[in-house]
């Protein structure tokens, strides 16, 4: 399992991308950074985008990816996977013919360049060698975590979240859990802000990881707010919960 970090920050500055992970060249988890990190040839290989939620730092490059696919006249559509509610938000507020062209109906309604594939909690979706399921998490808008399993090994991508429960129960029932990707947005001194916006601090992350029984699972941290990045990184170093914590940076490739 190869995971390429296209963008991993919770804010955007030159050289720092918002959240997007590329799996095995053909699938994306979120679309915050795509066209600014991938060549046209790499973009054309992408078949599926799994959205955790509709906030712009997780969708901002999706519009340009679809635009490139349209004008390069790729024959197969890009498939956007998420809950019916998240997909409806993206179509209503982004691909609505005003903010951006309605690529769900272009070049024609029967042969669009962008398709929706809804997934519900409790369902399993098979995409090539991958089995995919979702779990709702605790954010200010509808947000989900994705459990991605292939060849007997599993990774979980937790979308933006504050303290949550169901995803940890799901993780604890999962064998061969190789990695968990989870956010940490603010330093400990901003715990009130984290609570208001339903994000985590390093201290909050530590409380969440106490719910995880798999001590051997690698934990990958993303969504750090850039104006607090160094402070967050230092506080993450001080965690002594027994988990193997890795602070992500753009451009990394992770092999699990």
What does this structure look like?
With 256 residues, the protein is of the alpha/beta class. It has a single domain (2-255), classed as Ribonuclease Z/Hydroxyacylglutathione hydrolase-like (Metallo-beta-lactamase, Chain A), CATH 3.60.15. It has seven helices and 14 strands. The strands form two sheets. It has a seven-stranded mixed beta sheet with strand order 6-5-4-3-2-1-14. Strands 7-8-9-10-11-12-13 form a seven-stranded mixed beta sheet. It starts with a strand and ends with a strand.
Judging by the overall fold, what is the CATH architecture? 4-Layer Sandwich
Give the biggest sheet: 7 strands, mixed
Portion of residues within helices = 10-25%
Oligomer: single chain
Number of strands: 14
Radius of gyration: 18 Å
Give the class from helix and strand content and strand pairing. alpha/beta
Task: Write the CATH fold name.
Answer: Metallo-beta-lactamase, Chain A
Task: Give the number of domains.
Answer: 1
Question: So what's the CATH class?
Answer: Alpha Beta
Question: What coarse outline follows from CA principal-axis ratios?
Answer: globular
Mean pLDDT: 95
Strand order of the largest sheet: 6-5-4-3-2-1-14
Summarize the structure.
This protein has seven helices and 14 strands.
Considering the chains and any ligands shown, give keywords for the structure.
256 residues, seven-stranded mixed β-sheet, globular, 14 strands, Metallo-beta-lactamase, Chain A
